[in-house]
Amino acid sequence: MRTVLVTGANGGIGAAIVGELHERGHQIIALGRDAARLEDLAVSFPRVVRWVAADLRRPEALAGLVGDVEHLDGLVHNAAVAPVASVADTPYAMWQDVLTVNVVAAAELTRLLLPALRAAAGHVIFINAAPGVHAVPRWSAYAASKAALRELADSLREEEAPNNVRVTTVYPPGTATGLLERVRAEFGQPYDPDAAGSPQSVAAHIVNALESTER
Ligand SMILES: NC(=O)c1ccc[n+]([C@@H]2O[C@H](COP(=O)([O-])OP(=O)(O)OC[C@H]3O[C@@H](n4cnc5c(N)ncnc54)[C@H](OP(=O)(O)O)[C@@H]3O)[C@@H](O)[C@H]2O)c1
């Protein structure tokens, strides 16, 4: 049995990860931004041993929320925002939100939880973009944030190898969630949930990776 913190726990892929971890007998710390929805999640999945309401646009608040976690087997950086806009149409505030939620909050949460991850020889999983999301016109901030997230993960992997903390980046295919539906609509593209991947299959891959470390 492992203890895993999942961000974006109420989202499409996030809730599926919570469900898959629960199904396989692991304990979950669920981080989201809506306390009422997190409470409902904990009722549905009693192995949610703790939930944390946090707006990841304000990473400075995270220390007071997770600073007491002492032992953590897994940390899944899943939360993200993905507005569709060209550089010409992306104001400073939007750059701040996208880079803060998608990158800075992940770095700060990792920093705060590293002692707990080192104590458990834990595993940090970064959910990146779909494969091939590079230099996408009108998706500049999202593409830039995910490129930064990949570099963050690659640096962290090298830094933490001596401490036995594993780091994995996952590139899910287009997956049937609210995010994909919104993005397709903003690009003027059709959205067929049946033709997209399922959040459950992404979740199964992620939990397989978390379980792949011998205990
Ligand atoms: N769906 C795809 O096709 C696809 C493909 C490749 C990669 N991905 C990646 O998979 C991950 C999950 O995406 P998804 O498709 O499951 O999207 P989603 O359903 O929109 O979930 C995103 C989650 O991020 C949370 N979030 C956004 N802003 C936040 C903030 N300021 N503070 C705290 N939480 C915040 C959302 O919270 P609320 O629930 O409160 O809104 C939501 O739970 C993302 O990293 C995405 O880039 C998705």
UniProtKB/TrEMBL annotation:
PROSITE patterns: ADH_SHORT. GO terms for molecular function: oxidoreductase activity. Coiled coil: none annotated. GO terms for cellular component: membrane. Signal peptide: none annotated. This is SDR family oxidoreductase. Pfam families: adh_short. Belongs to the short-chain dehydrogenases/reductases (SDR) family. Keywords: Oxidoreductase. InterPro entries: NAD(P)-bd_dom_sf, Sc_DH/Rdtase_CS, SDR_fam. It comes from the Bacteria.
